Amino acid sequence: MQVSGKKVRLAIVGVGNCASSLVQGLEYYKDAPEDEQVPGLMHVTLGGYHIRDVEVVAAFDVAEGKVGRDLADAIQAPPNNTIRFAEVLKTGVTVERGPTLDGLGKYLSQIVTESEQPVADVAGILRRSGAEVLVSYPGRFRECYRVVCGPGAGDRLRPGQLHSILHRLARCLAPPV
Questions:
Q1: What are the tens digits of pLDDT across the range 101-136?
Q2: Of 78, 75, 115, which Cα lies nearest the Cα of 98?
Q3: Which of 1, 26, 72, 108 has a CA 20 to 30 Å removed from the CA of 155?
Q4: Nearest CA among 21, 15, 22, 135 for reference residue 77
Q5: Parallel, antiparallel, or unpaired: how do β-strands 45-46 and 49-50 relate?
Q6: Highest mean pLDDT out of 87-91, 132-136, 150-154
Q7: Above pLDDT 70, what percent of the chain?
Q8: What is the 3-state secondary structure (H, E, C) of the chain?
Q9: pLDDT given at position 114
């Protein structure tokens, strides 16, 4: 089953090595044949969506070398060191300054200079971009949930409630009625 003309609009929090692999993978596999086994992929098409149907519409980071740059450039910026396996052309997505939340950490703070840009309106950017899925590579779903949905949101959430969090995020991101 092919979903005609529909895109999955993806936002990324944390433009590190995992995000680099994701963005490069979207480019690398965009023309993968649906009727063949493709090394590196379990499924070329899932739920009627082909890999080329995933579109990155927003990205956030705190690193000086990534904020304000096109996503294609930011995924290659230090300290990222993922092997370049696909050439990603300019995406038109500018990496916005996200909130630092709980800091950079003991070791990362030694190699990353935090951006002095003001923190962007994350919830507003997500709404305007039409983001449907939010991938948080720092792994701090509860904090991301609070940034998008407001203070106190997610206080009762327990680890392992990702489905619930994503469902609630989708409701928070829905355009106001």
A1: 766 777 778 889 999 999 999 989 999 999 988 888
A2: 115
A3: 108
A4: 15
A5: antiparallel
A6: 87-91
A7: 73
A8: CCCCCCCEEEEEECCCHHHHHHHHHHHHCCCCCCCCCCCCCCCCEECCEEHHHEEEEEEEECECCCCCCEHHHHCCCCCCCCCCCCCCCCCCCEEEECCCCCCCCCCHHHCCCECCCCCCCHHHHHHHHCCCEEEECCCCHHHHHHHHHCCCCCCCCCCCCHHHHHHHHHHHHCCCC
A9: 92
User: Which pLDDT tens digit goes with each residue over 19-60?
Assistant: 999 999 999 999 999 888 888 888 888 888 899 999 999 999
Q: Residue 129's Cα: distance from chain center in Å?
A: 12
Predicted confidence at residue 37, as pLDDT, reads 87
Rounded distance between C-alpha atoms, residue 155 and residue 146, angstroms:
9
The C-alpha atoms of residue 99 and residue 27 are separated, in whole angstroms, by: 28
- Return contacts of 4-7, CB within 8 angstroms, 24+ apart: 6/49, 6/53, 7/53, 7/54, 7/55
Rounded to two decimals, what is the model's pTM?
A: 0.79
Q: Looking at the predicted structure, is the pLDDT value of residue 72 above 90?
A: yes
Residue 46 φ/ψ, nearest 5 degrees: -135, 120
Cis peptide before 99 (omega within 30 of 0): no
